[in-house]
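tool_call predict_complex ligand=zinc ion
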Amino acid sequence: MTTGVITTSGGGGYEVLLEDGCSVHAVLRGRVKRQSRVGAQVVIGDRVEVEEVESGTGRDWVVVNILPRTSTITRRGHSEHRPKLIAANVDRMFAVVAARDPEPRLAQLDRLLVIAEANEVAATVVINKVDLPETKDVAERIEALYSGIGYPVIRGSAESGNGLEVLRSALAEGISALIGASGVGKSSLLNALAPELELRTGELSRRVRRGRHTTVRSRLLRLPFGGLVADTPGFGDVGVWGVPPEEVEFCFPEIRGLREGCRFRGCTHLAEPGCAVLEGIEAGEVARSRWQSYVELRRPQ
Ligand code: GDP
Ligand code: ZN
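tool_result ok
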């Protein structure tokens, strides 16, 4: 018996990265298989126990046990009823925006951070493409806003490689995921740090990759300097993630920190008198853009 991490799932089997650094193909058996039929799916990031067994065709690896998870990433669609489990044991998420091309949208960055918070995964803001002209001010503004809330912020460029040392060392342990809109440079950042990954970049190639006849599978990529990073189509698409309205206040650290001070229990921080959050906006403790994102996300989807 040995332990490993699920790095690829789908297509009837799993890739498991074993402790000794070898990757093997494994199937589910027995109890694990029965559990997976009733919905306790095995996903990328899962730590599992595997066993090598004799079979008719030779030797096979079999997943015999799923070890307890430290975190799960579930996606709740607005229309889908059942939450979809997409990864386990993710240690941190990087919410990536571009300083320009595409223009940074704070509402979207807030959404990314809410996804991390809702899944109780630590988040870092990455501002990419700072090599482009006239990005200094906007990058500084975004950094000031989010580091003020308590999020670590990395400013860098996949193009020039500037500022990526911190990203590299943060990725070097455990399991990470980069989330963000298409075109902000997630694949380019990973390629800049690990050229051997040869991830496809740019809109055009991606459209080809997502063509009707190719299934894009979720996988964890091994970084040459240590660490695993998710390459999962479902991570990027911010639009499809949902958080129940009543949970939204807990996904904004600065609102979470003030809510105890509201006059009314169950204050929604939308318009109530004596609301500590609304007062916080007036006092400059809560950014108006953040509150607007909060209001937007609270709206029944
Ligand atoms: P993804 O969709 O988030 O994975 O974004 P890609 O990595 O595919 O990058 C989208 C486009 O932005 C590509 O044309 C990249 O060449 C470009 N790009 C990515 N990072 C940078 C950067 O730091 N600076 C500049 N100037 N362009 C970048
Ligand atoms: Zn309030």
